[in-house]
Design brief:
Length: 328
């Protein structure tokens, strides 16, 4: 029989994402509702290793639903990759009487959680929180929607100045290994070209497309580039390449950077975080372990870490075709 759950720990790990605070709030409030003690660890796995924690109740998460970032702070812990590090973390959990953990983060967080849970037989539930949306086992990760809106807003502003000066802008967005942000914001902002890690469109095609744009009478253009784009050139090299080959273009570069991870979460992300985290606590109380929660076809689901981590969240390449048609 599964051990009774009296105390649940929660932490945020990896790159922060808007909506992580809404997630922490939902864990703390669901714990309060079900009469379970809740303990928050600072800086993800590193805080578990160091025993850096705070007791949380329904009131300690007041007014955080609208705040970006994470009140528990976030980090990537090298020490947790070692068995000794994980042992230190487990010792602190035991000392605090923690029976189960809710881990809010990306695939790296889930991989760490899976190993930890198997090594020490402690139930963990993963909650997908990353702006990259690169986790299978959910259609949407917490923070992705807000990041998209931030990016769209920035591109709209750049479009204004691009069009006033008849310029071509290369705009780099986040996504080291995944092009979800680039592809969806690119379509949403009406970019002329979108370069993503999942598809190598090639430099020739880029030049052809920009020549076509000029011929069709466009005076300004936007190219959205994912930071992990497959062409193999960074955004500045791409801009130089186009300047050399198409001297008629007046080219500029904007790297949006970490501003994409900040800001007040959208309603979608707040609701998503709330739904997923209530479910995470309820699953633990029902004796479930080693799964990630997610939203699939608008239903809250539980997927085993094995399944969730073994496949890639596939990007909708149909959007590249749509973008091609609409940038005519
Ligand atoms: O949060 C995910 C992500 O934004 C990636 O797209 C990006 O490559 C990475 O984090 C950068 O994070 P950091 O600067 O914190 O290492």
């Amino acid at each position: 029989m599964a051990k009774e759950i009296r105390t649940i720990g929660v932490m945020t790990s990896g790159g922060d994402a808007p909506g992580m605070n809404a997630a922490i709030r939902a864990v703390a409030r669901a714990c309060a509702y079900y009469n379970v003690k809740c303990i928050g660890f600072y800086r993800g796995y590193q805080g578990m290793i160091e025993g850096d924690y705070c007791e949380m109740n329904a009131r300690s998460v007041r007014n955080i639903i609208s705040q970006g970032g994470t009140i528990l702070k976030s980090a990537r812990s090298e020490e947790f990759r070692t068995k000794e590090g994980r042992k230190k973390a487990m010792d602190h959990l035991k000392k605090l009487g923690i029976d189960a953990m809710v881990l809010i983060g990306g695939d790296g967080t889930f991989r760490g959680g899976q190993i930890f849970s198997e090594e020490f037989d402690i139930p963990v539930i993963g909650v997908p929180g990353t702006i990259d949306n690169d986790i299978s086992g959910t259609n949407y990760t917490i923070g992705y929607d807000t990041a998209l809106n931030t990016v769209i807003d920035a591109i709209d502003k750049i479009r204004d100045t691009a069009s006033s000066h008849d310029r071509l802008f290369f705009i780099e967005v986040m996504g080291r290994d995944a092009g979800f942000i680039a592809l969806n914001s690119g379509v949403g902002a009406g970019a002329e070209e979108i370069l993503i890690p999942e598809e190598d469109l090639g430099l020739d095609r880029l030049l052809e497309s920009l020549k076509r744009s000029k011929r069709s009478g466009k005076s300004s253009s936007i190219v959205v580039v994912s930071e992990g784009d497959k062409i193999g050139k960074n955004v500045y090299e791409l801009a130089d390449y186009v300047t050399e080959n198409l001297p008629d273009y007046d080219v500029r570069v904007t790297v949006l950077g970490h501003m994409q991870r900040g800001g007040s979460p959208s309603c979608f992300d707040r609701t998503l975080a709330s739904r997923l985290c209530v479910k995470a606590v309820e699953l633990l109380l029902d004796g479930e372990k080693n799964v990630m929660v997610g939203l699939i076809d608008n239903k809250v689901t539980a997927t085993s870490f094995d399944e969730g981590l073994s496949s890639e969240h596939e990007i909708n390449k149909e959007l590249l075709r749509i973008s091609d048609i609409l940038s005519t």
